[in-house]
Write a structure and sequence with these properties.
With 238 residues, the protein is mainly α. Helices cover 49% and strands 0% of the residues. Helix 1 packs across helix 2, helix 3 runs parallel beside helix 6 and helix 7 crosses helix 9. 25% of the residues are buried. The N terminus and C terminus are likely disordered. It holds the Pfam family SLT. It comes from Pseudomonas chlororaphis. InterPro entries: Lysozyme-like_dom_sf, Transglycosylase_SLT_dom_1.
């Protein structure tokens, strides 16, 4: 009733007056000149607006990429961390097998024909062969540069000869330096949700357990379990 009286008192400018004293404000209440003991009628609560969709709203571990299972398989075949291979492919070709550079590099891993032939792969338009050629070269670089990940990535881009010419340092080529930075950033982001290679002795190497070590561990476990069972008191019913 008091609210109606105030509206009538405002005269022809009732709507403006009501806005001035906050009677039609749905979510907030402005006291204005009203008495402190006057409360507004509760307004219906509205749900907050949904944020606009964006690429960052997708969980990285749920991203699906072309050739994903094949990439994972080839990485493990060459004892590489799958995350590293994914990072390089993302930077090299954005997972496009038909990608080609003006220097002659082709495919998912942008392999040069001479490099592919060096490791026994000539049909670089074939995704499995392209992946294996690139993985074989990366595996060789990691072994050659003492598992220095950044040097190996730089050599993949500029060639191992360039890394050697500059004293086993990343060559001062802007393209190569940017390439190393981008691959390492992508690798650290872990976009594919693979577990970090905390058991790997070297970065970029996929952790696998030696079969003989696994057998020895199993034998020790069984021996310990047998000893515990023999040492425990017999169980009697009743």
């Amino acid at each position: 009733m008091l609210g109606m009286g105030l509206l009538l008192a405002c005269g022809p400018g009732a709507q403006v007056c009501a806005q001035g004293i906050g009677l039609d404000a749905p979510l907030t209440w402005t006291r204005g000149d009203l008495e402190s003991d006057i409360s507004p009628e509760p307004a219906p609560l509205m749900p907050p607006p949904s944020p606009p969709p964006s690429a960052t709203s997708v969980a990285p571990s749920r991203l699906i990429v072309p050739y994903g299972p094949l990439i994972d398989s080839v990485a493990r075949e060459y004892h590489l961390d799958p995350r590293l291979l994914h990072a390089m492919i993302h930077v090299e070709s954005r997972y496009q097998q038909d990608a080609a550079s003006n220097k002659g590099a082709v495919g998912l891993m942008q392999v040069m024909p001479l490099t592919g032939a060096r490791f026994g792969y000539t049909n670089l338009s074939n995704a499995p062969d392209n992946l294996r050629a690139g993985a074989a070269y990366l595996r060789w670089l990691l072994d050659h540069f003492d598992h220095n990940l950044e040097l190996s990535i730089a050599a993949y881009n500029a060639g191992e000869g360039a890394v050697k010419r500059y004293g086993r340092e990343i060559p001062p080529y802007p393209e190569t330096q940017a390439y190393v930075t981008r691959v390492m950033a992508r690798y650290r982001e872990n976009p594919m949700g693979f577990s970090a290679p905390d058991r790997a002795r070297q970065p970029g190497v996929h952790a696998t357990e030696n079969p003989s070590t696994a057998l020895r561990s199993a034998a020790v476990f069984l021996h310990t379990l047998g000893s515990l069972l023999l040492a425990s008191p017999e169980h009697k019913d009743g």
